[in-house]
Amino acid sequence: MPNFAALTEAPIEFKRNARAALADGQLRRNFRGAMDFLMVKRAAQFADDEECEQLRAFGNRVRARALSRLPALLEQLEARLTRNGVQVHWAESVDEANTIVHSIVAAHEAKNLIKGKSMVSEEMEMNHFLGERGVDCLESDMGEFIVQLRAEKPSHIIMPAIHLNVGQVAALFHDKLEVDYTEDVDLLIQIGRETLRRKFFEADIGVSGVNFAVAETGTLVLVENEGNGRMSTTVPPVHIAVTGIEKVVEKLRDVVPLLSLLTRSATGQPITTYVNMISGPRQADELDGPREVHLVLLDNGRTQAFADSELRQTLNCIRCGACMNHCPVYTRIGGHAYGTVYPGPIGKIMTPHMLGLEKTRELPSASSLCGACGEVCPVKIPIPSLLRRLREEAARRADAAPHHVRGQGANHSTKEGLVWKAWVKMNTSPTLYRLLTYAGTRARGLTPANIGPWTEHHAAPKLAPRTLHERVREHLGEA
Amino acid sequence: MNARERILAKLRGSLEGTTPIADDYDTALVTTPWTYAPAQRVARLRAQLEAVHGETQLTTSAEWPARVFAALAERNIDELLVSPLTLHGQQLAAQLALNKGGLRLKAYDRAVETWKDELFFHTPASLTGTLGGIAATGSLIVWPTVQEPRLMSLVPPLHIALLKASAVFDNLHEAMHTQRWSEGLPTNALLISGPSKTADIQQTLAYGAHGPKELIVLILQDA
Amino acid sequence: MSHNSRGTGQATRVAPPREAARVYPPKPTDVYLFGTCVIDLFFPDAGMDSIRLLEREGIKVHFPQAQSCCGQPAYTSGYTEEARAVARAQLQLFAADWPLVVPSGSCAGMFRHHYHELFKDEPAALQQVEALAARTYELAEFLLHVCRIQLSDTGAPVKVALHTSCSARRELGTHVHGRALLAQLGAVERVDHAYESECCGFGGAFSVRLPDISGLMVLDKTTALKDSGASEVVSADCGCLMNINGALEKQGESLRGEHLASFLLRRSGGK
């Protein structure tokens, strides 16, 4: 099991985790199959390339507009929600957020929480925090439920159990829920449904995330297919929504393009089964719905990303997961190897703000910068550029100003710095360049057969007998 | 300073000297590709709903109760959750009385806490109205009310919804704009596009995850 | 949704070029060639064949001998200062108003897109960068749209797989240009390979920093190329070719990738 970042101080051992994942053929087949499926479904939804490009550009503008007035929108959101009867809380750290949730739990003497899917609650390690305090948190999204039964973390932000195949789920249910072994997915889902149904109305509190928080109306928009999100936010007497401060949009109509981009990019659906718009608790004459609704707004490094206009684009994210579905690295190693709540390309640019670059030092480099993520991102986050930027922040001296990212200089190496200095010398001095390339090509016979990691998968590269520079001199004369 | 003030101060500091981006909302982008000829509107909605295992039936404002009775009979369901306070609830009850059918009508007339067990385990079907539909995505607009609370469209395994053909909009933007949602949303507003589903086990789609296993939309062509 | 759609996970996505429609000038009398460091040291034939193709089009090719590297290795590694120093040295070399032709997508992309980022805080240099970017062309694009080359095939029937580097594909649309050029060759049948749009795993330093992942990516790429039925592999990017050919050699395969310029020249009657 890969190490998970939030529970330890040690850096995430991405390379070690990845090596283990690559050795697991079943895991790789599960991911390749799943990612192919999701890529094909997304492509079918965006058959009109022109429409896709225009909508992505629009989505980008809607998010950028919201961020350009974020503090004012957060205040407006808070005012509207408060007017609607929702209690709004602010937390700078996950500890603060957990403490807020726990205080609500304590006030109600709650023992059982039922959770709709929420990545921010994963970010908070809420289950762990409350569990240590004797409060039981049960995941109700089928994928999250499966992952929780296995004492694992989600391996994908949209499809938490995507690393498992049906046989593995069948064995799990047989083992943990004491039902007959079956690989019939309909039956397995019915088992999950029956197991969880009673839990919804036994729960003291329901917890959910938020997809879009609308400042104009004070509305929390949640999208889902299963109905567990509606259950969790409707049946228990108290609903706690947790979300990042970046999730706010200015106007209700802004949800229209973002919703379309989200569901089509994530799972290739024109829309999810449910779009659940919550604007307040149960009114006096209503017969269901929570009597209390709370919203916890979490910072946890988001203000750091926000402080730099380039890195701020990270906060455009609407959590569709398309970047991971299209990532050749994620496809091969799966979500757990990242050791972070948010895996894949978006996780690599988001997590350094949450955990600092010391812990996440291996992540920004774990990309060939192929650009597949940026190409599909529905809100046009330039993920490859931001990966490069974080590499720069990690390579800079820790004390160099200005300071943008916690853990700046985590990969700073005097030795590597000297190598690049020498590289600059060679490539800015034509005389030196000619001399060195001449020497290199003439010594080509001396290339060792084994040159570090490269020759694990490649024959040793051999320099040409004569450089292009030389041959051009012969062909065109000195220029 | 508390957390709220510190967060807002940091954000404000980061925006110092910048101008908020103007709202250049492009309505055409979210409407033009999702616009249908009047004759195609309902067909589009049906196709989209049926693609996700929603059942649709074209019927009329006089004939629909018979469709409800038939659907329930077909499934051997003898009990229906329906509000006696709505016009459609009253129409159904009147029709049922005329038919002298054996169907029991049950009202959601008390707070959920008092009858959770019955609602969750002994209520096989429900009937609700809708505020309209959306052709582009095959969605129902449902705003729960005191008469038809939130869980009516969620807990019973079969949900039957009435949809007036005249209330089918082309796309979400049109619905939102025409019905002036931003001027006042209820405590809970919903878009429902098919029965509950999940693909969380090896991307295999299964219906009836936590919500209804079946959704039947009765489209009233003359309403 | 059934599982049946999964088989199409051959997932070859051929997105159209993302650059705004570019207006192409008439064929010039002179061009600069930027040879790139990888071609200089490992694939000089590709550079020479690029020159010969351009000369055959009646263009005089200028190759400033002071050129070295576009700066990309340092840039993608996060050594921005160092990349800028090397980029600055290249900027001085192409003073005349001739197009700059680059027989490598990722290096062309550096000139066209990333120098802007490197020099964003230097107004004077930025002007120079923008002017140069506007006249920088990846070789395939230049042959197709500026030279309006007409190739006639002189070779025997052959099946060819085209691999396009990720930056060439996504920053420049080279996959479209490469396909159009190959389509001019009558006896050449271009065949698709599985996951054609997927990265070969090179990514510069990525291939040595994360050899396990990179190694599996290039294994998958070479397998797809071999399984495509193609007897030849061409690419307009020598970084990928170094990766793909190095892996093929290690695997004991005889198949090798060839630079598009060399292939086009050879098929259309040589020099």
Automatic annotation (TrEMBL), chain A:
* Gene3D superfamilies listed in its UniProt record: Alpha-helical ferredoxin (1.10.1060.10), NagB/RpiA/CoA transferase-like (3.40.50.10420)
* SUPFAM superfamilies per the UniProt record, alphabetical: alpha-helical ferredoxin, NagB/RpiA/CoA transferase-like
List the residue ranges forming a coiled coil, or say none: none
Q: Which InterPro entries match?
A: 4Fe4S_Fe-S-bd, 4Fe4S_Fe_S_CS, FTHF_cligase-like_sf, Helical_ferredxn, LUD_dom, LutB/LldF, LutB_C, NagB/RpiA_transferase-like
Signal peptide residue numbers? none
Alphabetically, which GO biological process terms does the record hold? lactate metabolic process
Q: Which domain of life is it from?
A: Bacteria
For this UniProt record, give its keywords in alphabetical order, as a comma-separated list.
Answer: 4Fe-4S, Electron transport, Iron, Iron-sulfur, Metal-binding, Repeat, Transport
- One term of GO molecular function: 4 iron, 4 sulfur cluster binding
Q: Matching Pfam families, A to Z?
A: Fer4_8, LUD_dom, LutB_C
Residues of the 4Fe-4S ferredoxin-type domain: 307-336
Q: What is this protein called?
A: (Fe-S)-binding protein
The organism's lineage is:
Bacteria, Pseudomonadati, Pseudomonadota, Betaproteobacteria, Rhodocyclales
Automatic annotation (TrEMBL), chain B:
TM spans, by residue? none
**In this protein, which residues make up the domain named LUD?**
43-220
Q: Which Pfam families match?
A: LUD_dom
**Superkingdom:** Bacteria
The record, for InterPro entries, names:
FTHF_cligase-like_sf, LUD_dom, NagB/RpiA_transferase-like
Gene3D superfamilies in the record, alphabetically? NagB/RpiA/CoA transferase-like
**Name this polypeptide is given:** LUD domain-containing protein
